[in-house]
Amino acid sequence: MMNENTLISGLENGRSGFFELLWKRMGEKGDFPALSVAVQKIVDAMHDEDHNASDLTSAILSDFALTQKVIRLANSAMYSSMGGEITTVTKAALVLGVDAIGHLAMSVRFMDTLSSSMPDSAMARSEMAKSLLAGDIARRIAHKANLKDVEEAVVCALLHHLGRLLLVFYFPGEWKEIAGITEGRFEEENAAAEKVIGISLDEIAQEAAKRWRIPSKIANSMLYPPQSVATALPGSSDWLKLVAGFSGEAASLAMEGRPGLDALIEKYGDGLLVPLDAVAESVDSAVMHARETALLLDMDNQSSSGKPQDAKERLEIAIQEFLIASKSGLSFGNALNLALETLYSSMGFNRVAAILRDGETLKGRVGFGEGMPEILSRLVLRDSDASDLFQLALSKNADIFIENVGDPHISGNLPHWFGHSLSDVQSFVLLPMSFNNHPIGALYGDWRKGALHSIDKEELALMSSLRNHLMDMLKPVKN
User: Can you give the residue ranges of every domain in the chain?
Assistant: First the structure.
């Protein structure tokens, strides 16, 4: 039934041939490599023994469009119960938790990847919207079940029908035929897929899960649930599988306006361990907020274009948020992450970094943006080095802004590593950090070549103020 030189019949090994063509089609669009790398970075950061918030934030911030979507979604109605406005990934991780923001970023990146290759058809848009609605339904049920890791249920629901989504986007003709056979009957989709393409939807989903190294708990939820629903411990692999299955079917029934929702709730009710009326309420409220979840579909794929016109206003707001966060028991490490991200987003820097003292050497420790974290290891300042602009700024504890590093009077006075490690830089800011009149490091931010950026006195003063508030956290508390 397949084209491309009769896909299945024209290939010696039908199963391997199908996946070969699937990966080829994804690769040609440039989607699969981007997805696998982004997902793996986020998963690695989430699974770090120390739950390294800096690594997770860096993984998200490496993709400007992903950053904007995570922040915007974190401020949506779905998270309104958290209270307060979230303007940075660091703050989102602190408020929602490392696991929550990691799962959120992973689901956003996954749906972005599929939507970027989505054919212009009502069928594809409908299937995408169903997945997003299913994620919101799962979130609300997980909250009512008092689940600790709510985002886990959301990701499972988003990915539950992965096999269906891959066919819709990459084999729309075959999916249309499968949908014609099943007429919305979920329990028949695997059999129909085997009839049309020789492979079940579950097989497609599991093969993709292996290739993308999706955690086993999530991969298990991508299988269709059993016909009979058994009770499982909330948060367990089997429970997540039931929630994902129910949410997917409920989303389809609701969006297509078909009857059967009450029967579906009755079927899954006992297994979800949530009162039936609470399950129904979860579906109804999720449908009402469907437009909110659809934000993921219509956000612009924007990229950093340099200093924003409202940089001063952004800095003023961010500094107030920083002060509030610093008074809530924030560790210096998390405060440093927050200060860097504030500079990065408010000023539109290409990259930012913190250079901190280690004995007689100052080394790059934390950084966001282009080329990070690889560039960090090259940012090294030694006390014994000859005097240059960096050393001069540190010794004088003076903030500096260099508008054009190509100026002969400037280029000859930069550290020896600057030219080859930061060859794309046009302008930069350096904010020394001093404790007891002794230089302990600096905050650094730069813009790439292509446009000259200016900073007025008020903007530099605000950046200096942010650095000063950060350093205040190192001062002993007075009784």
Answer: 14-298, 311-472
- Cα-based distances in Å from 340 to 36, 345, 367, 415, 432: 27, 9, 8, 22, 13
Per-residue pLDDT tens digits for 435-465: 888 899 999 999 988 765 788 999 999 999 9
Please tell me the total number of residues recorded for the chain in this structure.
Answer: 479
Domain 14-298 has CATH 1.10.3210.10: yes
Adjacency order of strands within the sheet including 351-358? 380-382, 361-369, 351-358, 438-448, 425-435, 400-402
* Residue range 361-391, pLDDT digits in tens: 899 988 888 777 778 888 998 877 667 899 9
* The two structure tokens encoding residue 166: 């891959």
Phi, psi values for residue 215, rounded to 5°:
-50, 145
Query: What is the pTM assigned to this prediction?
Result: 0.51
Segment 423-437 shows an average pLDDT of: 92
Q: What are phi and psi of 127, to 5 degrees?
A: -65, -40
May I ask the CATH architecture of the domain 311-472? 2-Layer Sandwich (3.30)
